[in-house]
């Protein structure tokens, strides 16, 4: 299991490094027609404020003091990996899904939610698990269709960059005595996480090519 987790994060960093080298040559935000939007899915490593609520410690000082000068809902004093990627690509920081407006969707959306899991077997009123994040992506696609039309929306989503960060919260349960492990071995549980995550990726890919609804 440790090897699988390490390999997953190694692949994530390879993807991040590749994207960082796709830097634009201009010193200003690209026009909506000349950029690749950034769509973020994941947990607290990528969440930029979707869990921004009074019960979240990330909404209180000293979070945010290093860069933003105020708490943003990030589990960090400063920027996260998606922020750095967006900044280097001359894009605005992808806003949390719960804070977006239609005019901002062309540059991407951050769907990540602290505590999110691939399996999401324990419903939470605050945490948005993988299935919920994909549902929110579907809603964004509908909003884009309404604003841009079918063909422009498909073109935008086809050239977009998609980042995922999942597994930490699922695998953490292996050492926390999670009840489902009374029925499955650790290896079987890891396989369930990988299989469900793979299915989620395929669903996201299918969403891009869905007909208008």
Strand order of the largest sheet: 2-1-3
Give the terminus-to-terminus CA distance.
40 Å
Order of helices and strands: HEHEHHEHH
Mean pLDDT: 78
Low-confidence stretches: 1-6, 16-27
* Strand percentage: 5-15%
Oligomeric state of the chains present here: single chain
Shape: globular
Which value, in Å, is the CA radius of gyration?
Answer: 18 Å
- Tell me about the largest β-sheet: 3 strands, parallel
What is this structure's SSE topology?
Blueprint: H1 2-20, E1 38-42, H2 81-88, E2 108-110, H3 130-148, H4 150-158, E3 161-165, H5 168-172, H6 186-208
Parallel strand pairs: 1-2, 1-3
Name some characteristics of this structure.
213 residues
Description:
This protein has 213 residues and is mainly alpha-helical. Helices cover 39% and strands 6% of the residues. It has a three-stranded parallel sheet. Helix 3 packs parallel to helix 6 (186-208). It starts with a helix and ends in a 5-residue tail after the last helix. Residues 1-6 and 16-27 have low confidence and may be disordered.
What is shown here, in short?
The chain has helices at 2-20, 81-88, 130-148, 150-158, 168-172, 186-208, and strands at residues 38-42, 108-110, 161-165. The chain is mostly helical.
